[in-house]
Design brief:
Length: 250
Amino acid sequence: MAKLSRDLGGDTLHPRETLFGTGVLGGVGAEVVIAADGCACVCLDMRGTYSLTAEVSGSVDGVNWTIIPVRLIAGASPVYIAAIAGSLSGVWSGALYGFRLVRVRCTAFVNGAASVTLTASTAAPDASLSGMVTPNLGTIIGAVGAATTLTLAAPGLGLRHYLTYLSINRFAATVLTAGAVPVAVTTTNLPGALAFTFEADAAPLGTMVRWREDFAFPLVASAPNSVTTIACPATPGVIWRVTAGFYLGG
């Protein structure tokens, strides 16, 4: 049996229903706004023939708005985006984080019109795949003796890189001689200015040192909407390869 609660004034609080609104996005600035008090999840259904960019965002005060990353429900992986661009129709979902209002707004327009339905629900968003899959890969291989940097592009407003694994290989393209100082691989936009130390040992031609870390809990980038880099220094006789698996999230 459903339980009815009371507010501070002693009045009965009725069971919540899904809140929704409908409208058409047919130009820059067109929007649909709904209340979202107490809701945990937002869903956007967008249909029609159009080419535009739409953003889902939430507000606490009704004046300032924060981007809500959303993902396509029909997608096979938790790929979150900050803006829906182009002509794709479908249903997107995201977490509300306690916002009082939620909206979908057209920020760029080419042609057509999108019929939208925006809903806010008390149902918790489905995050069952978060951290369980690796939908994105970045990799780079350098030239002999050259500095090599893997750069993960800025993911968009409100989004960060979540690294599921990182692999760094050091290949000896020539006979390597030992050095007195270890080789440091540095990063940007990862917690604690993360860095790695590699051997500066003597090594025969054709040998390779392999380092790989699979993060049991994904390593999150420090700043949203920023590039993340893993930089290997110029090392005589060495070819570097760097590979990172990651997904995007808020």
